[in-house]
Design brief:
This protein is an alpha/beta fold and 406 residues long. It folds into 3 domains: 161 residues, 3-Layer(aba) Sandwich (Rossmann fold), CATH 3.40.50.620; 178 residues, Argininosuccinate synthetase, chain A, domain 2 (Alpha-Beta Complex), CATH 3.90.1260.10; 36 residues, no CATH class. The protein contains 12 helices and 14 strands. The protein has a 5-stranded parallel beta sheet with strand order 3-2-1-4-5, with helices on both faces. Strands 10-9-8-13-14 form a 5-stranded antiparallel beta sheet.
């Protein structure tokens, strides 16, 4: 890709140090026009300063898009219908945001006639893969600029020096010189990497966590709430109808106040290395527990078990950046078909970091039959003698094998 071929680039832009430097670097190295795109996916930060910084850099086309509802409705909720967990622990908060951001980058490139898109993901991480796989799936001819794979500004000190030499304003954090953690936030979670977390033996400091109280400091009285499901998605909390983004924001608030959703994980990155990360996902932790409780009442046994078998593959596809791949879409179609019956209510008890499902009901789709399940006399609803033949038939191969061994 010749630099002279690039006339206009759409940059995923936060206004922070990295993307502010990238903006200027693109102007200098590629001599191109830059369009900035800032996504509001619920990171909880004021985004207008990004507009002011872009204007100060001479940017004429500035996009700041509120994508919170689309993020939860079209990305988070479909993923939770699958009960997705990567490596048994990670609720995929960063992973699921990347395909939406990349999708919008491609859309803006088409709207503005841009030749390329650019992102600030490093050459060591998963995000570069997620952004670019999505981009190529949606526009196979798009050109992609990843400055971290091209430049020599490979430390914070070099980035700061570059910013100072070009008069780029950079906000300081904590001790006035650096932010101790690499953080990423959206409506689903906030993540922490780097600094002292690079030693997997070191316990995170109490002041690192932003969204959740320590479980031992959570209220001494439990919090109860009832979630209403329609086709696998939560549509109301305690009877109050809410949009997808409102549901997740409210569950984050309630869960955080009860110390719910902290995770400390060493995970396997797609690029090959192990990485330690800490996550706060209060709303997602509640959603997962509630959704599984709702499915336990309404899903056929074999459909539920097959979903559990498919889930690790689905989670890996999301983690590795294959949201728009045909195999993820195929799995999603199968999963969504099962969710037609996932309707009803789940009552939850939240207490000092724990989420317990303490009630579930479905007037239309419950497969729980009290007449059959009861330990009391069942008036012939279940013939216990039938179990004799059932066991003998299932034991047949075991008995044949035992005779041969004997």
């Amino acid at each position: 890709m010749a630099k002279s071929d690039i006339k206009k680039v759409v940059l995923a832009y936060s206004g922070g140090l990295d993307t502010s430097v990238i903006l200027k670097w693109l102007q200098e190295e590629y001599g191109c026009e830059v369009v900035t795109f800032t996504a509001d996916i619920g990171q909880g930060e004021e985004l207008e300063p990004a507009r002011a910084k872009a204007l100060a850099a001479g940017i004429k086309e500035i996009y700041i898009d509120d994508l919170r509802e689309e993020f939860v409705r079209d990305f988070v909720f479909p993923m939770f219908r699958a009960n997705a967990l990567y490596e048994g622990e990670y609720l995929l908060g960063t992973s699921i945001a990347r395909p939406l951001i990349a999708k919008r980058l491609i859309e803006i490139a088409a709207e503005t006639g841009a030749d390329a898109i650019a992102h600030g993901a490093t050459g060591k991480g998963n995000d570069q893969v997620r952004f670019e796989l999505t981009a190529f799936a949606l526009n196979p001819e798009i050109k992609i600029i990843a400055p971290w794979r091209e430049w020599d500004l490979l430390s914070r000190e070099k980035l700061m020096d570059y910013a100072a030499s070009r008069g780029i304003a950079v906000e300081m954090k904590r001790d006035g010189t650096k932010s101790p953690y690499s953080m990423d936030a959206n409506l689903l979670h906030i993540s922490y990497e780097g600094y002292d977390l690079e030693d997997p033996w070191v316990e995170p400091g109490a002041d690192m966590w932003r969204w959740t109280v320590p479980p031992e400091q959570a209220p001494d009285r439990p919090t109860y709430l009832t979630l209403t499901f329609e086709q696998g998605d939560v549509v109301a909390i305690d009877g109050q109808a809410m949009s997808p983004a409102q549901v997740l924001a409210e569950l984050n608030r309630i869960g955080g106040a009860n110390g719910i959703g902290r995770a400390d994980i060493v995970e396997n990155r797609y690029v090959g290395m192990k990485s330690r990360g800490c996550y706060e996902t209060p709303g997602g932790t509640i959603l997962l527990k509630a959704h599984r409780a709702m499915e336990s009442l309404t899903l056929d046994r074999e459909a539920a078990h097959l979903k559990d078998e498919l889930m690790p593959r689905y989670a890996s596809l999301v983690y590795n950046g294959y949201w728009f791949a045909p195999e993820r879409e195929m799995l999603q179609a199968a999963i969504d078909q099962t969710q037609q019956v996932v309707n009803g209510e789940v009552r939850l008890k939240l207490y000092k970091g724990n989420v317990l499902a303490v009630g579930r009901r479905s007037e239309t789709n419950s497969l729980f039959d009290t007449r059959i399940a009861t330990f009391e006399e069942d008036a012939g609803a279940y013939h216990q003698g039938d179990a004799t033949g059932f066991i003998r038939l299932n034991a047949l191969r075991l008995r044949v094998a035992a005779r041969r061994r004997g």
